[in-house]
Specification:
The chain is of the alpha+beta class. The chain folds into three domains: about 5-50, Helicase, Ruva Protein, domain 3, CATH 1.10.8.10; about 60-145, 2-Layer Sandwich (Tetrahydropterin Synthase, Chain A); about 190-265, GTP Cyclohydrolase I, Chain A, domain 1 (Orthogonal Bundle). The chain has helices spanning about 5-15, 20-30, 35-50, 80-85, 85-105, 110, 120-130, 170-185, 195-215, 220-235, 250-260; strands at about 60-65, 70-80, 115, 120, 135-145, 150-155, 160-165, 240-245, 245-250, 265-270. Helix 1 crosses helix 3 (about 35-50), helix 2 (about 20-30) packs across helix 3 (about 35-50) and helix 3 crosses helix 7. The longest helix is centred in the C-terminal third of the chain and has 19 residues, at about 220-235. The termini are far apart.
Length: about 270
């Protein structure tokens, strides 16, 4: 068996991120061949990842980033909060986000297929899953392009938002306020007209069922359901929500007070839990 030096183990650990004992074992099996040991670590990582494939990756790290008129957001999920808050894990997620910013992939599948560290993003995530010892899942990617894009990362990296505006000269505070409003109130659309018909139909059905369960007369059930739909649309569309910093006005009113020509062109929001 090859004489394995501590410096070689440390070098392999630095190159792969694997544990000390795994690195020593790989070097011994590779008889001191560093490149072969790296391949063994990767194979080991994939095997561990496969064993954990049925685990639930319900923790993780959500990050948004903006450069110029483009913003992107990802969620890299893991099994435990301990891993999610690890500095190296946060940096790993950030490196994937940087890759997305540089390449502007069309969707999550395109992001996973991008070249990354000599492999694809998906392959590297799988290898890291084995190295860390938890199931990792790059579960979400979204982007926005607009004249002005504002991002917001919530403390703890479990929630992020992106919002686009039709003008580049949006006051910084206004842009931040809207990004934080989206984070806090989780709207489903910018305005009532943007809500999908099937969502409205579902809310109406829920309203009818509730009214009937409460014993309301059949002839007023539809009216009650319509009222519940109106309430849903006000509470769940961005421009019609009460502004969190001043509930006497809506978000739409706040925006128009800041700039009568300012419009929100779209937004993205993702949260873990």
């Amino acid at each position: 068996m090859a004489d394995i030096k501590a410096a070689d183990v440390q070098k392999l650990r630095k190159a792969t991120g694997a544990g000390m004992m795994d690195c020593k074992r790989a070097l011994q099996e590779a008889e001191g061949d560093f490149d072969k040991a790296i391949d063994l670590i990767r194979t080991m990582g994939k095997a561990i990842a496969n064993k954990r494939a049925d685990r639930e990756a319900s923790e993780g790290n959500v990050q948004a980033k903006v450069e110029g008129n483009y913003g992107a957001m990802i969620s890299l999920n893991c099994e435990t909060d301990f891993v999610a808050k690890n500095d190296q894990y946060v940096e790993f997620a950030a490196s994937i986000l940087d890759l997305a910013m540089a390449n502007k992939p069309a969707d999550l599948a395109a992001l996973k297929a991008l070249p990354f560290q000599g492999k694809t993003v998906e392959e590297v995530v799988t290898e890291q899953s084995g190295t860390i010892g938890e199931k990792l899942d790059l579960s979400y990617f979204a982007s926005i392009e607009a004249e002005k894009v504002q991002g917001y990362n919530h403390i703890g990296n479990n929630l992020a938002t992106l919002v686009g505006f039709n003008k580049s000269d949006v006051a910084e505070q206004v842009a931040k306020d809207i990004a934080m409003q989206i984070a806090a109130m989780a709207p489903v659309a910018v305005d009532q007209s943007d809500v999908a018909p099937e969502v409205i139909a579902k809310e109406k059905e829920i309203g009818r069922d509730k009214a009937l369960q409460e014993g309301k007369p059949e002839n007023i059930v539809d009216r009650i359901a319509e009222g519940m739909v109106k309430k849903f649309l006000k509470e769940n569309t961005l421009l019609n929500q009460d502004f969190t910093k001043d509930s006497k006005k809506t978000v739409g009113q706040y925006i128009k007070e800041a700039d009568k020509d300012l419009e929100v062109t779209g937004f993205k929001r993702f949260a873990i839990k």
